[in-house]
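[recover] target loaded
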């Protein structure tokens, strides 16, 4: 939901959009819905990043812990150094405990360096329309992908409900630390490639055989059963 732009500008549809999602007009945070707010950057108006971040949070800060936040970096903002965006994101994180996203187009992400923002741990919301997969340069992967503008802006979240809440700062899941040789159980029949396996996999104890980032190959120790996302595995003590 667009919340604000520049300093002291609240989007006129902010409340109605949130009320429609929330189902009430009390303006209270919703701990069960998956939602977020973004701010449209206007450094071209002479505003500092902190001034705009404070203005943004004056409208949305009470939702901290229940929503994700994002900075919309486009238009005239692209004429300015991305350090402005980094300062904005750092301020929002310091005040909310969440990890706000940076929204940019694929053409911008592919031609200008945003490594400092990626290294700071801020996720990517990329706009790349009408392609099978977005082109990403500085990030290992996208968190949100705006893949179409018709009939409205359409987006795909690269994760599940727990991942969304983690971005909000809820920390509903603990990071999973695994090593080759560990014994694990799978928490879902769906493997890394999205294939739904037979129900027996939920009752079997596997051995970690290979690891590459979030992709973990499991099996009997001799034969490979398949690959699962690390977040979908539970270590057996």
């Amino acid at each position: 939901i667009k919340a604000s732009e520049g300093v002291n500008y609240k989007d006129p549809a902010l409340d109605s959009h949130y009320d429609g999602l929330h189902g009430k007009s009390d303006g209270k945070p919703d701990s069960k819905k998956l939602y977020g707010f973004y701010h449209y950057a206007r450094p071209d108006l002479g505003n500092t990043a902190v001034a705009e971040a404070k203005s943004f949070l004056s409208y949305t800060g009470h939702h901290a812990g229940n929503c994700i936040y994002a900075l919309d970096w486009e238009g005239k903002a692209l004429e300015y150094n991305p350090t402005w965006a980094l300062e904005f994101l750092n301020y929002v994180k310091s005040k909310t405990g969440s990890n706000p996203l940076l929204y940019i187009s694929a053409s911008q992400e592919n031609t200008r360096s945003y490594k400092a923002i990626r290294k700071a741990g801020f996720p990517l919301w990329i706009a790349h329309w009408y392609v099978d997969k977005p082109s990403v340069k500085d990030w290992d992967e996208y968190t949100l992908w705006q893949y179409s503008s018709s009939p409205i802006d359409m987006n795909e979240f690269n994760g599940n409900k727990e991942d969304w809440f983690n971005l909000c700062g809820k920390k509903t899941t603990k990071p999973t630390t695994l090593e080759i040789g560990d014994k694990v159980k799978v928490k879902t029949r769906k493997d890394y490639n999205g294939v739904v396996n037979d129900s027996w996999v939920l009752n079997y104890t596997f051995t970690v055989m290979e690891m590459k980032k979030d992709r973990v190959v499991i099996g009997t120790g001799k034969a490979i059963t398949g690959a699962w996302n690390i977040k979908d595995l539970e270590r057996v003590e």
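[recover] notes: The chain has a mean pLDDT of 93.
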